[in-house]
Amino acid sequence: MAVVRWNDNKVVTFISSFVASEPVETILRYSKDEKKKILVQCPQIVRQYNKHTGGVDLADMLISLYKTPFKTRRWYMGIFGQLLDICVNNAWLIHRKANEGNRKKKMALKAFRYAVHENLISENRCAKRSKSGAPKINTPRKARPSSPIKYDNVSHFPQTMEEGRCRYCQKTVVYCIKCQKRLCFVTEKNARNCFLDFHTK
């Protein structure tokens, strides 16, 4: 770790594990005494900070939009919450870059955080059974469930409901109670198992 203190308009302290004070460079700063810009020595850590400060400001801005609340006297929980927010925001930036040309798959940061939340609470959990019978399946606006859930091998059971179109082929009365998707399986002439195909990679 390198700790560098530099006197600019005021004393600023930098800590880094990436760069230190050398190589020292020269930069222009306004002098009140001479009333003009003069060359002053600048540590390398300051140059690197000024070069990449846009990323730091962006990260702080994104965290301030939807900050994870931690009401606790344990100081380290605040650091944990900050790291958690940074990880989620970085994942959203990667997701947005990967789907740059696809408007349908683009998600707002708030929607992305909700999707992460739903995935985490559904992973390796049993499906909730409805007491009033089979639920009505509507056409969702986004893919449901997201890909990690359908592969968790937990509580994906077939059930029957009113006839509708299978996700892959023809009409069926079979659906998955956890994924809420119509998925058929046929054992006669045209044998197929869309239920298995959907839940296996």
What does this structure look like?
By secondary structure, the chain is an alpha+beta fold. Among the domains are: 58 residues, no CATH class; 76 residues, no CATH class. 34% of the residues lie in helices and 23% in strands. The protein contains five helices and nine strands, in the order E-E-E-E-H-H-H-H-E-E-E-E-E-H. It has a three-stranded antiparallel sheet with strand order 5-6-7, with no helix packed on it. It has a two-stranded antiparallel ribbon with strand order 1-2. A hairpin with a 3-residue loop joins strand 1 and strand 2. The two termini are 45 Å apart. The mean pLDDT is 78. This is PiggyBac transposable element-derived protein domain-containing protein. InterPro entries: PGBD.
Order of helices and strands: EEEEHHHHEEEEEH
Rg (CA only): 27 Å
Sheet of most strands: 3 strands, antiparallel
Question: Could you report the average pLDDT, rounded to the nearest whole number?
Answer: 78
Spatial strand arrangement across the major sheet: 5-6-7
Roughly what fraction of the amino acids lie in strands?
15-25%
Class from helix and strand fractions = alpha+beta
Helical content band: 25-40%
What spatial form do the alpha-carbon principal axes imply? elongated
Count of helix runs: 5
How far do the termini sit from each other?
Answer: 45 Å
Q: Return residue spans where pLDDT drops below 50 for at least 5 consecutive residues.
A: none
Number of strands: 9
